[in-house]
Amino acid sequence: MKLAIIGAGGHAKVAIEAWRSSGGNVAGLYDDNAELRGRSVLGARVSGSSVDGFASEHLLHLAIGDNRARAGLAERLEDDRCPVVAHETAWISPTAAAGAGSLICAGVVVQAEARIGRHCIVNSMALVEHDVAIGDFCHIAPGVRLGGAVSIGSGVLVGIGAAVLPGIRIGSGAVVGGGAVVIRDIAAGAVVAGNPARPIRPS
Ligand code: JB2
How far is the CA of 5 from the centre of ligand 1 (A)? Predict the structure, then answer.
């Protein structure tokens, strides 16, 4: 079946190439920005709004980097229309699992019994070690390293290149700045940065 992609920005390019890497066809792109209508992104045409995409007969993927925007759109979707999209170069343990609509990008490694929620982005070259648990609507940015048994709530952004030590717990809605090294648990909603990571905005 063909995949309709909601969102026609930079992240859509990554989703398109991940889906195509294993022979998938993209039906079209759908974006609420009317100025994008008719444009082509990597050969896929912007054919309408998100409502048009939902009304199509195709499988769907939410290719929007913002966690909240993605979560809002997911409420209007049934999980069985949203396959896991994994680039062919990702290595995903046969004992790991990812929820509906998640994108596992090029070069990602997901180790034994890791759990990834619904509509997550595990971006290029990220490492998700054994027994990691990631909630719904998270973005694990490029090059992030999550040590064994790290636990992450929903709607969390772990910024590019950050490292999270084994067993650390990160609460829902938290933001970890790019390059941070997380050595202590992080409260829900907190924003942390640096090495070692410290709050720059309290929860
Ligand atoms: O609620 C929405 C919505 N919010 C943004 N509904 C619909 N249908 N579309 C929405 N969009 C659309 O997503 C915008 O109109 C825009 O066309 C697109 C977002 O494009 P942008 O290039 O700004 O961001 P992105 O989400 O594709 O990529 C971001 O996140 C990635 C993970 C960037 O920060 C990338 O650099 C990053 N790799």
Answer: 11
**pTM exceeds cut of 0.85:** yes
Reading the block at residue 15, the tokens are 């989703």
User: Is 8 a pocket residue for ligand 1 (Cβ < 6 Å)?
Assistant: yes
203 residues of the chain, pLDDT tens digit each? 899 999 999 999 999 999 999 999 999 999 999 999 999 999 999 999 999 999 999 999 999 999 999 999 999 999 999 999 999 999 999 999 999 999 999 999 999 999 999 999 999 999 999 999 999 999 999 999 999 999 999 999 999 999 999 999 999 999 999 999 999 999 999 999 999 999 997 66
Does residue 7's CB lie within 6 angstroms of at least one atom of ligand 1? yes
User: Among this protein's residues, is 130 annotated catalytic?
Assistant: yes
User: Is 181 in contact with 162 (CB distance < 8 Å)?
Assistant: yes
Residues 6+ apart with CB under 8 A from 8: 29, 30, 31, 33, 36, 39, 41, 46, 63
Distance 10 CA to ligand 1 centre (A): 7
